Known about the structure:
Elements: E1 2-4, E2 9-10, H1 11-19, H2 25-32, H3 42-63
Antiparallel strand pairs: 1-2
Amino acid sequence: xxxxxxxxxxxxxxxxxxxxxxxxxxxxxxxxxxxxxxxxxxxxxxxxxxxxxxxxxxxxxxxx
Length: 64
Ligand code: FES
């Protein structure tokens, strides 16, 4: 599902970025460009980010 229409970023791309180490909206903006145009996706992108961080917390603790 597209989260950011302006940059054609899907929820999968956001989850992948989090798996690669993105841990805040600034990281998502830098690596994907999410929210850098109209900004309408920022709220939803943050939700996906927080969900993914919560889900992957255990994995991160193990891998770091
Ligand atoms: Fe993401 Fe416009 S929808 S910047």
